[in-house]
Design goal:
The complex is a heterodimer of chains A (226) and B (129).
Chain A: H1 14-23, H2 33-62, H3 70-73, H4 86-110, H5 114-145, H6 159-190, H7 194-197, H8 200-225
Chain B: H1 11-33, H2 39-60, H3 68-103, H4 114-119
Classes of the chains: A mainly alpha (226), B mainly alpha (129).
Chain lengths: 226, 129
């Protein structure tokens, strides 16, 4: 494999790099171990969310009752006519905004700009917390005003409730855990805990947060829009 | 120890992707707002979803800059899920056809919305058959 390009660390790229990394008795992933572990955790989490989403696909395909109209159910009125799906759209934009601030936090972390890193992580956590707050509002509205239950609802297919509570509940749990995790990392950044250890931990926390946003992309499209 | 010490990239690319994600989310919402239905709805929603997911994983999660060994570990196993989705779709369609054929349900029944329910004051107990 002498013909292929070698980078500054003496490693091949592309397919020869893949073969080299896997075939020799040595470290396969040239990243900090915490990052490799976070990725493997996220892959396993992908499987969990896919189980929920394929379960949803199955009940959605097989139910003989009409599926409740999400656009109308999640509409919200600000004084005038109800705007379809507006709360979910706002939640989507909040999560995307938080993903952007997280990306900036990672970047500032590698620049060792502790102050900016801290504030970008705190902003991300605050946006995440407001997302959870809106979700609590949405759940309350559905349970109290629309009498949606995991075993039935007034609109149509009874599976709607169980799918909704299970999928958004599990996602909300991820967001809540993420908020706590981010605040933990933020205060460690502020105290200078990573000055010696390196700022990869901010990127690792960022991977988790972007994953939460990624899952929401799928939930938004598959559950709310289709 | 690590070959590429951290993922450090110019800020510009994050701003561009960030804007793009906002734009794509707006497009997704527009599909619902303008009540696009049928095959177009499915196509557009899935397209915008796939694009958003792709940009988040590749740029925000830095997958395009990672080495191929890590990228294959991340993206390889989830590929079998496509097979699961295909199986569930085939099986689900079969189940629903069986139910419509043998259990006498109406495939064209209309769903009720909150406006249908909150408008009438009859109470749910009285149902006419």
């Amino acid at each position: 494999m002498s013909g292929t390009a070698v980078n500054e660390a003496g490693l091949h790229s592309g397919v020869p790099g893949l073969v080299d990394d896997w075939s020799a008795d040595k470290q396969a992933y040239h990243v900090p171990w915490g990052k490799a572990m976070m990725w493997i955790f996220l892959v396993s989490d992908t499987f969990i969310f896919t189980c929920f989403l394929t379960g949803y696909l199955n009940v959605r395909l097989t139910t003989t009752q009409p599926w409740p109209p999400q656009s109308e159910i999640f509409a919200l009125s600000f004084g005038g006519d109800p705007i379809p799906l507006i709360l979910i759209a706002i939640m989507t934009f909040i999560l995307i905004t938080s993903s952007g601030t997280m990306a900036l936090a990672v970047n500032m972390g590698y620049r060792k700009d502790k102050k900016k890193t801290f504030w970008f992580i705190v902003a991300t956590a605050a946006l995440g917390a407001s997302f959870v707050g809106m979700q609590a509002f949405e759940w309350t509205k559905l349970i109290v005003d629309e009498s949606v239950r995991p075993w039935g609802n007034p609109f149509g297919a009874p599976q709607f409730g169980s799918v909704f509570f299970m999928i958004t509940g599990f996602h909300g749990l991820h967001v809540s855990a993420g908020v706590i995790y981010l605040l933990w990392v933020a205060f460690r950044v502020k105290r200078g805990y990573y000055d010696d250890k390196g700022y990869e931990i901010v990127e690792i926390a960022g991977l988790y947060w972007h994953f939460v946003d990624l899952v929401w992309v799928f939930i938004f499209a598959l559950f709310y829009l289709l | 120890m690590s070959a590429e010490a951290g993922q450090q990239h110019p800020l510009g690319i994050y701003y561009k992707i960030w804007t793009l994600l906002f734009f794509l989310s707006g497009c997704s919402y527009a599909v619902d707002f303008f009540e696009v239905q049928g095959a177009w709805r499915w196509t557009l929603v899935i397209l915008f979803m796939a694009l958003k997911a792709g940009f988040i994983v590749s740029i925000f999660m830095h997958a395009v800059w990672e080495r191929m060994a890590l990228v294959f570990t991340i993206l390889g196993p989830p590929m079998v899920l496509l097979l699961l989705i295909a199986f569930i779709t085939i099986e689900g369609n079969y189940t629903s056809r069986t139910r419509y054929t043998y259990m006498g349900h109406d495939p064209n029944a209309e769903a009720l919305g909150p406006s249908d329910l909150h408008g009438e004051e009859h109470g749910g107990a009285e149902e006419k058959h």
